[in-house]
Amino acid sequence: MQRAVLEAQRAELALQREVAENQHDTARRVAEAAMREQHRRLLQMAIDDPLLMAVWPGYGSDTSEDLCRQFMYANLIISYQYMCWETGYLANHEIEDTLHYIFASPKVQEFWEKTRAPRDLSSPHSGTMREFYDICELAYQRQILGLATGPGPDDLTESR
Hints:
elongated; single chain; mainly alpha
C-alpha cells in the first residue's frame, strides 16, 4: 500500500515538474517576443525620425540617409523571419525558401553584405542566432549564384 502511494506521489511530482518546465519555457518565449518588439519599435522610431537614426551606428560614410532607412527596414524583415523560424512558425526548409526570395532584393543583398562583419562579431560561433545567420547566408549565396536548390559545398562563392 505504501509503495503504491509513493509511486503515485512520484508520478504527481513528475507531472508538476513538467508543468513548471512548460511554464518556464512559455515565460521565456514571451520575454523574447517582448524584446523583439522593443527592437522593432526602436528601429521604427529611427526609420521615422532622422535625428534618432543618427544615434544608431552607421553603415559607413558612403551610406545616404535613405539607404540607412532601407537597411533598417531590411533588418526588420530579417528579424521577423528569425522570429518566425525560432518560434517554429516556419520549418527550416520554409525559412530557407522564404529567405531565398527575400534575398532577391538588391537592397537586402546590399544590407547583408554591408553588415556581414558586425554580424559575425556579434554571433561568432554558436547558438540559435548563429544557426539562423548560417541559414541566411546559404539562402543569400543561393540567390547570388542563381541556384534554385540548396548549394553543394563547391557552389559557394567564398567561404566565411
